[in-house]
Specification:
The complex is a heterodimer. By secondary structure, chain A is α/β, with parallel strands linked by helices. Chain A has eight helices and 13 strands. In chain A, helix 6 links the parallel strand 8 and strand 9. The two termini of chain A are 20 Å apart. In chain B, the strands form three sheets. Chain B has a seven-stranded mixed beta sheet with strand order 1-5-6-12-11-10-7, sandwiched between helices. In chain B, strands 2-4-3 form a three-stranded antiparallel beta sheet. Chain B has a two-stranded antiparallel sheet with strand order 8-9. The longest helix of chain B is centred in the first third of the chain and has 17 residues. Chain B is globular. The chains are: A alpha/beta, B alpha+beta.
Chain lengths: 237, 360
């Protein structure tokens, strides 16, 4: 009977999301202690706040357990195949900007582009008897990007954190990760390939195309969207 | 709606047909070690095959085809010559098209024989053609060996030929390399600076497994390559002409013979196509109206390195090939640990055959 709005449960992303909604007359607040993941929505009827990990929001939207959710473009594209059929992008929120990029050691003066990376991967495999390893948590996006770029002889190794350190630790030869300023990359002696980012991401408000709604909920959703976005098209799937 | 048991019954019937031709029935396991497939196809196979794992054996894949396990089995224990047949499910992960089946039944026939490649090619093609004959399908044939021979004969460095050969199956990348070697793409400012030695020194430490010596070796190789003359426009035009050959067999052969005057390296490959055409005729296939395309099978059939073929339902562009196959000599070399044997095979999709039978 209520519209469920999913918001990242911690950190700057949560605070900025609260600010963004606050500026549009909808006050989101965490309740209870700092550690309790519960919240309330003031300034509008029939909307409930759900606090959860940003990484789980795409899945919950696709499953229809959330009607609306705030999370990064990167996570939606990585986790939802055919994402356009499962969620609708309602608004880019103007923060949480980050690029998914491919980076190699700065010392690789012979590598500027994907073409170079491919040539190096071939030579690396011959020399070391294994495929060139790229550490990432964005497996689908990176694999698709490398396929379109015609890169062969590489291996994706999973890295869920501290990805920039994997090259120095010799568990990968290159990385694909999210960066905003590039500072961590430079500090770890890595440079970004010139071909441009795999994806430009930012915090985005999404609407589930799969969530079931009764007439009252449809009205509540339309009312909510009208308040925060102005009139937008949310009919159809 | 065609039931699973109908499909399995059709598969059993087709396999019995191949068995009657003297093929031995084999039943490869559904779970395949992921390492072999990853080595062969690279990381891209993860987008096409289901991966599962356990703590003891590590990653396993639900077989995406039968060819690899059949080749492995033959290379490990097979007697020569050998003919095999099989029927069973293959599994294909789908990320882009929910309409495509992620599990379907294949029936195959594979020949491992050193004596007469043209005759083996014709044997496989004729058997598959016979099985789909009532469906009125459109056949397409090709031969990746022609392009490979042309690349091997290019008047340029071995490194360039190797790089082109590595991307034979990736047309876009192949094209980009060809353009670069022909001097049609200007190097970036960064690359020019590296090549002429005006780039500033790199102060960053060498991190990771790739050593300073490897980096220096590639810089030397890049300079060497930059000093080479560009691939001539004539040679690039010949490759383009070769790739655009798309005719019925006799006219395609005529075109290829003309091209072979300026590309003598492809003469043996063209002779193989002629021998195959004769062997197909001997098997009762009318090559007069059999299409031949030099580029056929270049995007999807990575392990085929010679004859390739497919059968398609006319007016059903929505359906994938009902039958397909080809020659994969190089695959036996890669999986044979030093051994190799000429091999050719083809597969049928009984589910699609039944679909077409019921809609006709």
């Amino acid at each position: 009977m209520t519209i469920k709005l999913g918001v990242p449960s911690k950190g700057r992303l949560m605070e900025k999301t609260f600010d963004w909604f606050g500026a549009r007359g909808v006050t989101l607040t965490r309740t209870g202690s700092d550690r309790e993941y519960a919240g309330v929505v003031d300034g509008i009827e029939e909307v409930a706040l759900v606090l959860l990990s940003a990484g789980e929001i795409p899945r919950e939207l696709a499953a229809g357990r959330l009607h609306l959710g705030v999370t990064g473009t990167d996570l939606v594209r990585e986790k939802l195949p055919l994402w356009e059929q499962q969620v609708q992008e309602l608004a880019a929120l103007g923060f949480g900007a980050a690029d998914l990029i491919l980076a190699v050691p700065q010392a690789w003066r012979d590598v500027d582009t994907l073409d170079d990376l491919d040539a190096v991967a071939a030579a690396f495999r011959t020399r070391h008897g294994m495929r060139l390893r790229i550490a990432t948590k964005y497996h689908r996006l990176v694999r698709e990007y490398l396929r379109l770029g015609g890169v062969a002889d590489y291996e994706l190794v999973d890295s869920q954190g501290a990805t920039e350190g994997t090259v120095a630790n010799e568990t990968a030869e290159a990385i694909a990760d999210i960066t905003s300023s590039g500072e961590t990359l430079r500090a770890n002696h890595l440079k970004i390939l010139l071909d441009g980012p795999i994806l430009r991401s930012q915090a985005t408000l999404w609407r589930s195309r799969t969530a079931a709604m009764d007439a009252a909920e449809k009205q509540a959703l339309a009312h909510f969207c009208a308040q925060i976005l102005g009139p937008v098209q949310t009919t159809g799937r | 709606m065609i039931s699973r048991s109908q499909i399995l019954a059709k598969a059993a019937e087709l396999r019995a047909g191949f068995e009657a031709q003297g093929a031995q029935v084999v039943e490869p396991p559904i779970l395949q070690p992921a390492g072999t497939l990853l080595d062969l196809y690279g990381e891209e196979i993860r987008a096409r095959a289901y991966v599962t794992s356990d703590a003891l054996r590590g990653e396993q894949m639900l077989r995406p085809d039968f060819t690899v396990p059949v080749v492995q089995m033959h290379m490990a224990e097979g007697a020569e010559p050998a003919r095999y047949t099989y029927a069973g499910e293959v599994f294909r992960r789908q990320e882009h098209d929910p309409e495509r089946a992620n599990e379907y039944v294949q029936v195959g026939y594979e020949v491992f024989d050193r004596t007469d490649s043209a005759a083996s090619d014709a044997e496989v093609f004729a058997l598959i053609a016979g099985a789909v004959q009532p469906l009125g399908l459109r056949a397409v044939t090709g031969d990746i060996g022609v392009l490979m021979a042309a690349v091997a004969g290019l008047r340029t460095s071995a490194a360039r030929r190797t790089a082109l050969m590595r991307h034979i199956w990736r047309p876009r990348r192949f094209r980009a390399l060809l353009d670069r070697y022909a001097g049609r793409r200007a190097p970036t400012a960064e690359r020019r600076a590296l090549l002429d030695g005006t780039a500033g020194p790199v102060t960053a430490p060498v991190i990771g497994l790739r050593s300073a010596a490897e980096i220096d070796a590639r810089v030397a190789a890049l300079r060497e390559d930059a000093a080479l003359p560009a691939l001539s426009n004539e040679e690039v035009a010949l490759i383009e002409a070769l790739l655009s050959v798309k005719e019925d067999m006799p006219f395609a052969l005529e075109n290829l013979r003309d091209l072979a005057v300026d590309l003598p390296a492809i003469v043996p490959a063209v002779q193989r196509i002629e021998a195959r055409a004769a062997a197909l005729e001997a098997r009762g296939i009318k090559t007069q109206s059999l299409p031949f395309e030099t580029s056929y099978g270049r995007t999807s059939m990575e392990y085929y390195d010679g004859f390739v073929f497919g059968f398609y339902a006319p007016n059903r562009a929505d359906l994938p090939a009902v039958a397909s196959g080809g020659r994969y000599d190089a695959l036996t070399r890669r999986l044979g640990r030093g051994a190799e044997i000429p091999a050719v095979g083809g597969v049928l999709r009984p589910g699609l055959m039944l679909t077409l039978e019921t809609t006709q």
